[in-house]
Amino acid sequence: MINKTMIPETIISENKIFQGKIFGVSLRDVKLVDGTMVGREIILNKGAVVIIPMTANNEVRLLRQYRAAAEKWIIELPAGGLEPNEDPDLAAPRELLEETGDRAATWRKLHGFYSAPGILTEFLHLYLATDLTPGPSHLEFDEHIEVQTVPWSEAMAMITRGEIEDSKTVAGLMIAGLHLGLLK
To answer: In the predicted model, what is the mean pLDDT of the chain?
Structure first.
């Protein structure tokens, strides 16, 4: 039987081998409860916010964004990284405004989740934004983003057809659908 309250490994040493603008990489030596020593490669990240912007007509704003790592256009929810010690409640409105131009009168924190806890410290804070007022986006110089507004049913169909491949978007839409009673 696994003791779910016991931490099964102890960090013995940690060596940060890289620090960039968005993430760092750390090599850890850990000792397991049986005394075995193993290495862990950890990607360090400050976390991010993910926003589900919903119109009064149950439409969701999605982004079509070019992603260099995937080397293609990806359909995503608006999202953005946190600054050091930044409050996610303050970051979410900033990111929505930057990427879509929308301001939301109503905000609701729905959930939070790790994007890839086996290798990455990034925790994503998920928000529902409603009562939207559109405006111009404020993209950073190197962002390539097109805003799309689609009916909720079409967003679900896009997941089913494999057109939405971004995990935070799939998870975010599903969680929002459960909270809003839109999933059957």
So the answer is: 94
